[in-house]
Amino acid sequence: MRAFILIILLLWPVAAVAQDNAAPIATETSARDDTAIRSRISDIIAVLGGYESVDVAVQEGVVTLTGEVLTPQDQTALTELAQRIEGVIAVRNNTVETTDLDARLTPALERFRTRALQLVSSLPLLGIALVVFIVIVWVGLALARWQRPWKRLAPNAFIAQIMQQIIRLAFVVLGLVVALDILGATALLGTILGAAGIIGLALGFAVKDTVENFIASIMLSIRQPFAPNDVVEINGDIGTVIRLTSRATILLSPDGNHIRIPNATVFSSRVVNYTQNAERRFLFPISVSRDCDLAAARSLIERTVQDLPFVLDQPRAAVWIETLEAGGVVMQVAGWIDQRRSSLPLAQGEAIRHVKRALEEDGFEIPDNVQPIALTRAPSDPSPAHSKESADIAEVSPGQEEAVSDMIKAERNREDTPDLLRADGQKE
After folding, report:
1. How far is CA 167 from each of CA 11, 51, 153, 250, 418, rounded to the nearest angstrom?
2. Half-sphere exposure of 88 (CA within 13 A, CB side)
3. Of 19, 263, 360, 383, which sits most exposed with the smallest number of CB within 10 A?
4. pLDDT by residue (tens digit) across 294-344?
5. Is the distance from CB of 334 to CB of 391 less than 8 angstroms?
6. CA 302, 307, 311, 316 torsion: positive or negative?
7. Gap between the Cα atoms of 184 and 171, Å rounded
8. Following DSSP, what letter does each residue of 299-353 receive, concatenated?
9. Which residue, 398, 406, 401, 410, is CA-closest to 243?
């Protein structure tokens, strides 16, 4: 029962509206009613203006509109107006759009004249708003040109320039807001900012890689993952760091080639810094015969490497058996150097030479990775005797790489490209 009452209450407003929309039409009308309706509509459109060519006729409560109007919107407005008059049963709008050139141009010229007069009357206010805008922007530009505070606040010149650009943009927006507030058009600012946001979003998707690279440049300049002249490996490329620009990290390879790596790649890649720690290990394999005393060979190699003057005492040299192959036993030899005083490739090469000499002097055979071939006839010329390795230790200081060092210095001394790295910067 309660549900039935609830349904009736819910449907009652709908039924009432239906009854109002389908109100009954009176069975009798008089000429006096038609005259009153016609008079009322004529008075209203006369006050509104723009309907001078429209004629109104009423018969039995049906309104007929004829004549010319300026726009289709005027036709719709005229129909809605007639329908709102009490006693109107139906409306027939037979008006058409006018083709009279004078009738169409006169309202437009009048609107233009009115707006021109409004513009002239608001020129003093426009002048004040313009002056305020210029003053605020000038203050922002002057503040941004003041170098000392930004250099103190920013970790490098690149960040300082970004902060200056933000200050300029902020004061331009502030000046625009104040000027529009003076003109009473602050609502226009929301439209402008909304359009700017949509355009900025579209441009952001279009230049996503450029924006990503720019943000990576900011982060790298702040974090300083490496310093100038550091030897690093980035994404498989090894070289000495020349500079960090707003777009790329520039390396100089050991062959003297320039390597430009986008900062977005640097930021997301594995970076190996070989200069961060002064101690660095060299590693090389060496093979000995399978029939020799492996423990004695390993001890001899370790002692030979450790006795080299450029090899550090701590960590000590190490030798271990790597694999057992058909041609012999492969051992891995490792030693540590101070790369500030020794060149890694030169030190490694000198260690290989002295290990080979020590093994040969103690009678250890170093097998060749070749297949021997037995000859049925002796060769006419005897094989030349093997020359004995010198026991002298060659110079392995990094001074022998002066040519590459001079190239790095020349590149860093160029002033046409800014460097975001600082030699005294705090590295992460």
Report:
1. 63, 56, 14, 30, 22
2. 22
3. 383
4. 999 999 999 999 999 999 999 999 999 999 887 789 999 999 999 888 888
5. no
6. positive
7. 20
8. HHHHHHHHTSTTB-SSSPPEEEEEEEETTEEEEEEEEEEETTTS-HHHHHHHHHH
9. 410
* C-alpha to C-alpha distance for 284 and 305, rounded to whole angstroms: 12
Architecture, CATH, for domain 279-368: 2-Layer Sandwich (3.30)
Q: Which phi and psi (to 5°) does residue 368 adopt?
A: -95, 145
Query: Residue 420, SS3?
Result: coil
**Eight-state DSSP code of residue 400:** G
Handedness of CA 419, 149, 213, 269 (dihedral sign): positive
Domain 27-121 sits in CATH at: 3.30.1340.30
Per the CB < 8 A criterion, the answer to whether 144 and 164 are in contact is yes
- What's the pLDDT tens digit per position in 109-160? 777 888 888 877 778 888 888 899 999 999 988 888 887 777 777 767 777 8
Q: Which CATH class is domain 226-276+400-428?
A: mainly beta
- Domain ranges in the chain are 27-121, 123-206, 226-276+400-428, 279-368
Q: Which residues contact 178 (CB under 8 A, 6 or more apart)?
A: 129, 132, 133, 136
Distance of alpha carbon 425 from alpha carbon 421, whole angstroms: 7
Which amino acid is residue 234, in one-letter code?
I
According to DSSP, the β-strands at 248-252 and 271-273 are unpaired
Q: How far apart are CA 135 and CA 16, in angstroms?
A: 65
For helices 31-48 and 72-83, the axis angle rounded to 10 degrees is: 140
| Gap between the Cα atoms of 156 and 82, Å rounded | 74
Structure tokens of 177? 């807001």
The reported pTM is 0.57
3-class SS of residue 184: coil
Taking the CA of residue 295 as centre, how many other CA atoms within 13 Å lie in the half-sphere pointing to its CB? 0
